[in-house]
Design a protein that fits this description.
- The structure is a single chain.
- It is built from eleven helices and twelve strands.
- 38% of the residues lie in helices and 15% in strands.
- Helix 3 packs parallel to helix 4.
- Helix 3 (75-97) links the parallel strand 4 (60-63) and strand 5 (105-111).
- A seven-stranded parallel sheet has the order 3-2-1-4-5-6-10, sandwiched between helices.
- The two termini are 26 Å apart.
- By secondary structure, it is α/β, with parallel strands linked by helices.
Length: 310
C-alpha cells in the first residue's frame, strides 16, 4: 500500500468485525475513534455534535452499525434490523455534511444477500440481479441512504458475504452441528456459500482507501465460493469428523423456529463475485476455504470455527 489513514472512525466497533478491525488498525499505529450507543465510545448516535467532532479531521469512516440478522423476522425484530441500519447511516451522513475537514472515504456496510438466490451464475456489482424479500429490502434501503446522503466525499457500500474468523460470530450453531455429528449438507446442499476471511475484509478496506477511483457497491467475497455440501465437508475435515447427518429443508425450517432464527441464512444460494476488487488488482490472502478453515482452527481452542454473517 502506498497510502494509509492516520485516523479511522469505526461505527459499530463492538461487533465481531469491528473488534477485529480496531485491533488491526491499532496494531499498525493508526488512531481509532469509535461511535456507538454507550458511554465507552468517543461519540454516541444520540449526540450530533459529538459525531461531528469525532469525524472532523479523520481520514476514513467505516460504518458497521446494525442489529444482528440472526433472529426471527417478526415485526419487532424486522423494525429493529431496518431502523438500526437506516437511522445510523442517515445520522452519519448528516454529521459528515457538517464536518469542516471531512474524511477521504466513507465505507458503509451492506450485504451480499442483496442479490437473488443464484445457482446459475455469479452476481457481480455491474450485472448482478437484485433479489426480493425482507433481507433484500433492508439492503436496498441501507445503500439508498448511503448514496442519497448530501455529502461530497467518496463512498462505498461494502456488500459483504459471510465472514469467517476466529473468536466470535453469528451462525456458530452450524459449526456446533458438525461437532455433534449433524454436519451433513443442509437442504439439497447445492446452494452456493460465498464467504470471506475477516483478515481479507481488513485488507479490502486498505485497498479501497488506497484506490481512489473505486466508489459505489463493492462485493467482498472470495472468488472461490463452494456449495453448502462442500463447505460442511470441509468443516468436518478440519474438526476431524468423518461423517455428518444431513438436514433436510423442512427440518431446517422447523429448527430455525426453535432457535429463533431464519432458515434463509443457510438455504439461500449466495454466489457473490468480487469483480471490482479483483479487477482493481486486489489479491486475497485466503482465497480457498480449506486454507481459511485451517488458519481459523489453529487460532481457536477446541477447533471451533466461528463465523459472522454479512
Amino acid at each position: 500500500m502506498s497510502d494509509s489513514p492516520s485516523t479511522v472512525v469505526l461505527c459499530g466497533a463492538s461487533g465481531y468485525i469491528g473488534r477485529y478491525l480496531r485491533r488491526s488498525y491499532e496494531d499498525r499505529g493508526i488512531r481509532v475513534r469509535t461511535v456507538g450507543r454507550g458511554t465507552s465510545s468517543d461519540a454516541t448516535w444520540s449526540d450530533h455534535r459529538s459525531l461531528v467532532d469525532v469525524l472532523d479531521g479523520s481520514d476514513l469512516v467505516v460504518n458497521l452499525a446494525g442489529r444482528s440478522v440472526s433472529c426471527r423476522y417478526n415485526k419487532t425484530n424486522a423494525d429493529e434490523i431496518m431502523s438500526s441500519r437506516i437511522q445510523t447511516t442517515a445520522q452519519l451522513g448528516r454529521a459528515i455534511a457538517d464536518v469542516d475537514n471531512a474524511p477521504r472515504l466513507w465505507v458503509n456496510a451492506s450485504t451480499g444477500t442483496i442479490y437473488r438466490d443464484s445457482r446459475d451464475r455469479p452476481m457481480d456489482e455491474r450485472s448482478g440481479d437484485i433479489g426480493s424479500g425482507f433481507s433484500v429490502e433492508v439492503a436496498r434501503a441501507w445503500e439508498r441512504e448511503l448514496f442519497d446522503a448530501d455529502v461530497t466525499i467518496r463512498n462505498v457500500a461494502l456488500r459483504m458475504s459471510i465472514v469467517l474468523g476466529a473468536g466470535g460470530g453469528a451462525i456458530n450453531p452450524i459449526i456446533d452441528l458438525a461437532r455433534v455429528g449433524l454436519g451433513g449438507k443442509m437442504g439439497d446442499g447445492g446452494q452456493k456459500f460465498s464467504w470471506v476471511h475477516v483478515a481479507d475484509v481488513a485488507r479490502a478496506l486498505d485497498h479501497l482507501y488506497d484506490n481512489t477511483g473505486i466508489s459505489g457497491p463493492v462485493n467482498v467475497a472470495t472468488p472461490f465460493p463452494v456449495t453448502n455440501e462442500d463447505m460442511m465437508q470441509q468443516v468436518r475435515n478440519v474438526l476431524g469428523r468423518s461423517h455428518g447427518l444431513s438436514t433436510p429443508a423442512w427440518l431446517l425450517q422447523f429448527g430455525a423456529r426453535v432457535i429463533r432464527t431464519e432458515a434463509e441464512l443457510v438455504l439461500k444460494s449466495r454466489w457473490v463475485d468480487p469483480q471490482v476488487l479483483t479487477g482493481s488488482g486486489f489479491e486475497f490472502q485466503y482465497p480457498k476455504l480449506d486454507d481459511a478453515l485451517v488458519d481459523i482452527a489453529s487460532e481457536t481452542r477446541r477447533g471451533l470455527l466461528p463465523v459472522a454473517l454479512g
